[in-house]
Design a protein that fits this description.
Chain A has 512 residues and is mainly alpha-helical. Chain A contains 21 helices and four strands. Helices cover 75% and strands 2% of the residues of chain A. In chain A, helix 3 crosses helix 20. Chain B has one domain. Chain B is 69% helix and 0% strand. Chain B is built from four helices and no strands. Chain C has a single domain, classed as Orthogonal Bundle (Helix Hairpins). Chain C starts with a helix and ends in a 13-residue tail after the last helix.
């Protein structure tokens, strides 16, 4: 079981290069290999998940284990939180790839698309597994550079412009992250996340690490598009091909943004009140402003992109609240609720935002427009798209019995228990605003009178696309089961434990 | 380019190529290694292309060739790393070949092999980038 | 300490260029300047006065070596920088072919 961990990075890399070499020679090779790769990865991830339980596995690359308690090699760490992320990444990846089989036929250079898709998966798996700061940076760059290329895949004016904007801001973010990593190495003389924690426990100068943490918040905040750093997201996510938008919005901003931020702040740095306050307020601001910006959008994919900003705000706010509660120390149950709710919402958001972008792609595939004003009356012509997008919309706006309701409810309960009444009110209000703009989407796309386009010529999308949408819609319902205590214990608790008991991470990783 | 340039660059390019190969092969002994040597090798080819002009070659074919070389070299690196799962302590990237005497050319186990493939990869990648930019220029000047 | 401050100044020079320039190529150059200021800082972190290059020579013993890890980091980061710059250039050239200019003020498909 240990030996399988590097395969999460190696398999997608191998198939990406094989696709580049053989994709031009053997016709249809990439259409067969890429989904197979993702399927194998998903099976591996689920296998690791079922076998893992509450332990964490450390894998030392090249057999370079620790020398007198000081790690010398590159570590891959698999624990409750990272294995959960691996499952989400590979699941959404598989669905988006299956969807692309039909969707991507309108573009040229198909094999490049599938190769880049495998690279993006390899990078994200690496980020999630890495137990080493610099390695994390390298994998992060692998995944974001392939996402730059995928955003520009349509090579139209808007796509190129969005990709350039994304690259400049993404490059700036990478520089800030590298600077922060350099500063950490300067003071601690180690890059291993667990070892850094070990050094910090022995004493540290607070102003210096506050500066480093602010750099990291700015860097990963740019990658995750928290509000003051969000400028690139609506452009990039709306210009990319739809399956890629689903990947970017559903998984990438979480794997390379939120996940790393949370992993570093919970397991590497010692909690500090100031940073927790910054995280909570940034989360609350992006939650509110993102939803307000989404209301006035008429471009369907831009609306979804702004709603991503708002939903990511929920996550950051809940995690920040968790740190504040842990620091206060008298209300651990509320902290568990806040962190658990955030992880739960992270899974849910990956599923329903992925589904919504796939719906948008289906509409664009048939109508060749993203403007809501040019749609209308599609509910008869495209029943599958209509039904699944209705389920996703209800789920994201927090209507029971869909999964979004439960995760938002948990976050709100945690806020009330922790006496953050303002944040609880904001979370509820934003949920209502979300309902408003998703009702707008539903009304203008599916239930309005037709706008004169020949509706009878519009057919439902091909099987590969409708199957992926139905699968995700069923998942939207099924994930509400996670709210049940017994299911939650087996799936979410290992992840929550990793974050709650921050000392556990370094003792188990370093083998102390 | 003038005749002088066209006469001198092939001579220089040969030397640069040899130097790049030297840097790659001694990567485990002296500063340098796959990346530096690969960049030098790519430099030799780029010098030739600059001297003789892009009209002397079939750009589309060249770019396909260099990108295939690059992918194959990268694939070999991953395969070498995966082969480590079969030998010795069975961990990824394990150095499974005999280490040899420090300071000798044939030493350090698999590391020279990694260096060679990374060298080919970097040379291929830089050449691909260069050729792709040349193709852009050719297309826009038409 | 002066060298670190100079690195930071170089970083700010890059940031200034990134914010004020209106030309796609100049933006890419500013990004590269920022990158290289950080590479310089990383190498300087590993520098030790009178340190030798970190290659173990059996003939010499008990020498002071400079820290090799930042050098390895910088090499890797340079490769990544190469990839990002190449991507930026490719996109910039494509944009030039669409708009016939490098000026970002002319490109306003995406506003709001």
């Amino acid at each position: 079981m240990d030996a399988l961990i590097p395969l999460f990075v190696a398999i997608p890399l191998i198939s990406a290069f094989l696709i580049v070499i053989l994709g031009k020679l053997v016709k249809g090779f990439h259409r067969f290999l890429a989904p197979l790769t993702l399927l194998v990865l998903l099976i591996l991830a689920v296998y690791e998940f079922t076998g893992l339980g509450k332990i964490s596995i450390t894998y030392a690359m090249g057999g370079w284990t620790s020398e007198g308690g000081v790690p010398v090699g590159i570590y891959l760490v698999l624990d409750g939180f990272s294995v959960l992320m691996l499952c989400i990444i590979n699941l959404i990846g598989l669905i988006a790839l299956f969807y692309s089989l039909s969707y991507i036929t309108k573009y040229t250079a198909e094999s490049n698309y599938f190769a880049l898709f495998c690279l993006i998966i390899a990078g994200m798996n690496g980020v999630v597994l890495s137990g080493d700061l610099f390695n994390l940076f390298v994998f992060l760059e692998v995944s974001v550079i392939s996402s730059y290329a995928l955003v520009a895949f349509g090579v139209g004016k808007t796509e190129l412009e969005a990709s350039f904007k994304y690259q400049v801001l993404g490059g700036l973010a990478s520089m800030l992250i590298l600077l922060a990593i350099g500063l950490i190495y300067w003071k601690t003389k180690t890059l291993n996340i667990a070892d850094v924690r070990n050094v910090l426990d022995a004493g540290y100068s607070k102003p210096f690490y506050l500066f480093v943490q602010v750099l990291l918040i700015a860097g990963f905040g740019l990658k995750a598009a928290i509000i003051p750093f969000h400028a690139w997201l609506p452009d990039a996510h709306s210009s990319a091909p739809s399956p890629i938008s689903a990947m970017l919005s559903g998984v990438l901003i979480k794997a390379v943004g939120i996940y790393v931020l949370i992993r570093l702040f919970f397991n590497m740095f010692v909690f500090s009140y100031e940073i927790a306050l910054v995280l909570t307020s940034l989360g609350a601001i992006s939650m509110v402003v993102g939803s307000l910006l989404a209301i006035k959008q008429w471009d369907l994919k831009r609306l979804l992109a702004y709603s991503s900003i708002s939903q990511v705000g929920y996550l950051v706010m809940a995690f920040g609240m968790g740190i504040l509660l842990l620091l206060r120390g008298n209300n651990e149950a509320a902290a568990v609720l806040a962190i658990g709710g955030a992880i739960y919402h992270m899974i849910n958001h990956a599923v329903f935002k992925g589904l919504l972008f796939l719906n948008a792609g289906a509409i664009e595939h048939r109508l060749n427009t993203r403007n809501l004003k040019e749609m209308g009356g599609l509910s008869k012509a495209m029943p599958v798209t209509s039904t699944t997008s209705f389920m996703a919309s209800m789920s994201i706006s927090g209507i029971p019995p869909f999964n979004g309701f439960f995760s938002k409810l948990i976050i709100v309960i945690a806020a009330i228990n922790g006496k953050f009444y303002l944040l609880a009110t904001l979370a509820v209000v934003v949920s209502i605003i979300t309902l408003a703009y998703f009702l707008k989407f539903q009304r203008f796309a599916f239930f309005n009178k037709s706008t004169g386009k020949a509706l009878d010529k519009i057919k439902e999308v091909p099987f590969a696309m409708s199957f992926s949408m139905i699968f995700l819609a069923v998942l939207c319902l099924a994930l509400s089961l996670l709210a049940l205590p017994s299911v939650r214990d087996s799936i979410l608790s290992p992840a929550i434990d990793v974050l709650m008991q921050s000392d556990l991470y370094f003792t188990s990783t370093l083998g102390l | 380019m003038s005749t002088i340039v066209k006469r001198v660059t092939p001579l220089l390019a040969g030397l640069i190529l040899l130097y790049g190969i030297y840097i790659i092969l001694h990567g485990h002994l002296t500063p340098g290694g796959g990346f530096a040597g690969g960049a030098i090798i790519a430099g030799a080819f780029i010098l030739l292309i600059l001297a003789f002009g892009s009209s002397a070659l079939n750009l589309k074919k060249e770019v396909a060739g260099s990108s295939n070389t690059e992918s194959i070299a990268l694939l070999m690196v991953v395969v070498l790393a995966l082969m480590a799962l079969l030998f010795g302590t069975k961990v990824f990237f394990f150095n499974y070949l005999p280490k040899g005497e420090p300071g000798e050319l044939l030493s350090a186990g698999v590391i020279p092999l990694y260096n060679i493939f990374i060298g080919i990869e970097v040379a291929g990648a830089i050449l691909t980038i260069f050729l792709a930019l040349v193709i852009f220029k050719e297309e826009s000047s038409k | 300490m002066t060298v670190y401050i100079l690195c930071f100044v170089l970083f700010l020079v890059g940031l200034y260029g990134l914010i004020t320039r209106r030309n796609l190529i100049k933006i890419a150059i500013s990004l590269s300047i920022m990158e290289f200021s950080i590479f310089l800082m990383l190498v300087l972190i590993g520098y030790i006065d009178n340190g030798l290059m970190p290659i173990v020579d059996p003939g010499l013993s008990a020498q002071v070596y400079v820290d090799p890890l930042p050098q390895a980091m910088v090499l890797t980061a340079i490769v990544i920088g190469l990839a990002t710059t190449a991507m930026l250039m490719a996109i910039a050239i494509r944009l030039y072919r669409k708009y016939k200019t490098f000026d970002i003020r002319e490109m306003k498909n995406l506003r709001g």
